[in-house]
Amino acid sequence: MPVPVRRFEWDDAVPGPRSDEFVARVTDESIRAYAEATGDRLPEGPAGSAVTAPSGYVFVAAPQRRHATMASIGCRAPEQDPFEPRSTPYVGSDVRYFRPIRAGDTVHSVTVLDRKFERGGNRFVVFRVDASDEAGRPVAVYDYTCLWERVPGRTGRSQRRPASGHGIGPPGRDPGSETGPVLVKAETVETIAAYGGLPVGRPQDWMSTHTNEEFARSAIFGGAVNAGVATACYTAQWLDLVEQPGVLWHRGRLESRALAPVRAGDILQITGQVREEPGDDTVRVYEIVAVNQAGVTAFRSVATVRSA
């Protein structure tokens, strides 16, 4: 008689479990499907060269597969529970890039349960994804933080944009003026579903707050929201407008945090500024924010880029 699979709980979140290996064969079609889902533009390369993916494509080529990490110790994710499913939504990510992903590449990745912590009464679990190419060379590594359990009545912090119109600056300094253009993203039911439908190795029984409206209504935000990594991709798109496309692939870093849910009907204005960083003048640090139509800062990224 088969042993029933139990739901993964907070006490099970001991660092160490690893998923099986996920293998993604990168094609022109898969890159273009990602670009269409996120409204991204593809960099133009020399005629006949392989298409280079936007930096946000790392979340598709090397997806965070927490369900597979939990399965490695005989458990199912809360989103897979047939009796009382619940969401464990994205809170933030921290990506370090090493080399570009291009059409024709094969990307290998493993998801590891890295750590857990509590803050303000809320509980968080951090998964780490290690991605490499077919030769074993590192492509990227990123942390993905989930809100595991929250204090009732709290859905996370949100911040209103200052009346001056400036983005968020680090403590103790005037945030200064914005750099470059304003990137506008109009989120819709269709755009949320398009990203939620990208192939990222999720099982058929996964209950998604991005594509399952009934489940989303019972989940933490009371309705469908976009994938947090999709908004991270939007901030990377803004950076590509200011720098050269794909600049993050070259030993860059993108640290992101969701501050408020992004829903269908939201219009995000994405802006950024250069931080003043002492020392190495080959390194530039940008602070990028996505502000919705109500003036609420829904998302914030800090991008570190390096001169070639």
Q: What attributes does this structure have?
A:
single chain, Thiol Ester Dehydrase, Chain A, 11-stranded antiparallel beta sheet, 13 strands, two-stranded parallel ribbon, 308 residues, alpha+beta
N-to-C order of helices and strands: EEHHHEEEEEEEHHHEEEE
Shape: globular
- Considering DSSP H and I runs of 4 or more, what fraction of the residues is helical? 10-25%
Return residue spans where pLDDT drops below 50 for at least 5 consecutive residues. Answer: 155-176
Q: How many strands, which pairing sense, and closed or not: the largest β-sheet? A: 11 strands, antiparallel
What is the count of β-strands?
Answer: 13
Q: How many structural domains in the coordinates?
A: 1
Please write the CATH class name.
Alpha Beta
End-to-end distance, in Å? Answer: 60 Å
Which second-level CATH architecture applies?
Roll
Query: What's the tally of helices?
Result: 6
CATH topology: Thiol Ester Dehydrase, Chain A
Structural class: alpha+beta
Radius of gyration, CA atoms, in whole angstroms: 19 Å
Mean pLDDT: 88
State which percent range the strand residues make up.
25-35%
CATH homologous superfamily (4th level) name: Hotdog Thioesterase
